[in-house]
């Protein structure tokens, strides 16, 4: 991986990714993906000693995620807002498990050093700027990135007198490289604009992300 250096208040990298087309269109049948998500979601719930209930809302959510992963051609990011405890993290882990399965079965592969998709808590992502900059660079560049609980992290990090906005810089880079990014958050789309206070971030999320929410319709 090439060195990322600080220039004009931004993290810059000399690494150039081959741009990919919009949409993920994973190499698996739509029904297979939805079945896998169902069992992965169920397994995660039961692993945490909870009772799995297959509600109509969950069925619809799995259907929408499955469609996004296999037939969506416009968006290459998925934003899942919602209140605490409604299954967003569980769904995010089910998507991660699906991607790991596709890697292990040689249906998708990585060319930048990461064998598997990256799953990271937003708070951990932000503090990597100070604690492990190389790890932050790695998640900026990973092919598939899953961020859990966006909005729980500090908007700005100060380290060695330098001011960084971790999510702004990470999203800006992944937008330019068209790298698939899947996010869960307790924030609404409107909250995102208020928290990160950057019209460019709002515009790029609007272009980049499909929203899996029955209430949310737009980042604007």
Automatic annotation (TrEMBL):
The keyword Lyase does not apply. Keywords: ATP-binding, Nucleotide-binding. The keyword Nucleotide-binding applies. Residues 73-170 form the Chromosomal replication initiator protein DnaA ATPAse domain. InterPro entries: DnaA_dom, P-loop_NTPase. It comes from the Bacteria. It holds the Pfam family Bac_DnaA. GO terms for molecular function: ATP binding. This is ATP-binding protein. Gene3D superfamilies: P-loop containing nucleotide triphosphate hydrolases.
